Amino acid sequence: MSSSALPPLSVRASAITGSAIRDLLTLTARPDILSLAGGLPSPDVMPHSTIREVTHRILSGSTAALQYAETTGVRRLRDVIAARESALVRDEVPPTSVVVTHGSQQALSLLASVLVDPGDVVVVDRPVYPGALQAFQAVGARIESVPVDADGTDTDALARLLESGVRPRAVHTVSNFHNPRGGVLSVGRRRALVDLAERYGFWVVDDDPYGDVWFDAPPPGPIASDRVIRLGSASKILAPSLRVGWLTAPRPVCDAVERIKQSADLCGSSLTQLVAADLLADEPWLRQHLDDVRAVYSARAEVLVGALRGELGPAIEVDAARGGMFLWVRFTDGTDTSALLPAALDRGVAYVPGRAFDPAGGDELGTALRACFATSSEDELREAVRRLAAAHEAR
Length: 395
Ligand code: PMP
Prior knowledge:
Strand order of the largest sheet: 2-9-8-7-6-3-4-5
Number of helices: 13
CATH superfamily of the largest domain: Type I PLP-dependent aspartate aminotransferase-like (Major domain)
Bound molecules: 4'-deoxy-4'-aminopyridoxal-5'-phosphate
Oligomer: single chain
């Protein structure tokens, strides 16, 4: 090995920081720790045997599943996604407006390259989905943020930001069952967001991997607009390892994404896209499967909310979950959740402190934490909260 210094990396590569959550997850993989920290869908609701059978059938039929696919995705899957999106937005979304990506995270990354030049402003939520923040930071975006609450992105705060002269290229939001805030963008705010996008000329990136994971009622439908780019994913409803996500957008965006995707990976996996197409197209099966996912997650969410309110009582505020995988727990007694974490880990429970979701890196979210109810069993959730309450009591 040469002893001289290695050649330099790009300025951009040196500026990219790792995800604090991914680092934390390595720590919390210890078997003695009950983790509320990850965002892992439960293996209990993954359709393991159905995926095995469908994969077998696809591979028995032909060798097409072993071949390169179109860059924009296998046509059969794009047809299924186009039909689902058309029903949601109550407008025709043609298959040519769909690009299948390697999970919706790749859609974020490709979109960031396509929409944003270095120095352009991108507005994100506060708290933010860190994967979106990373994707936009990686292309040199200047990040501004607006608060998000139980009704989603605060569009009044966004309007004030715009009135102050800020001109974003894109606004990112998670409209349904926000990660990490857990809220749902209200109908009024959906309308306001699209109105602002039309008035000020920015893209809305509506990142929606949780829309199908509703508990009592489906969320309001997205508003059809050529300013809105929608992202979806098979990760939370089928399995994350399929790495099947997608975006729907006006043709020029899809064409640009296709070109940049060619340079990234030529195409996604034909095999997993065909599996996803079969499962998403099988309406009776999908309806039953989603019912099962919703039943398991809503029961777990209820257990976690009940345990938190029971054990931590007046020290916290938490909203009942309406869907998705996360609760956003706010300590009203000033508990600093970053400072509490080592004691919580000592007692065998992990969570993600609120600061990890602050795009500005400040203290505003320092008394909040994100807890995932999807991964652990009901008994594990109760025990995790007992441990959290003990750490809080001893602080
Ligand atoms: N967007 C949001 C809001 C998410 O929570 C996630 C998963 N944590 C993703 C995108 C990416 O998911 P995937 O790449 O598995 O589709």
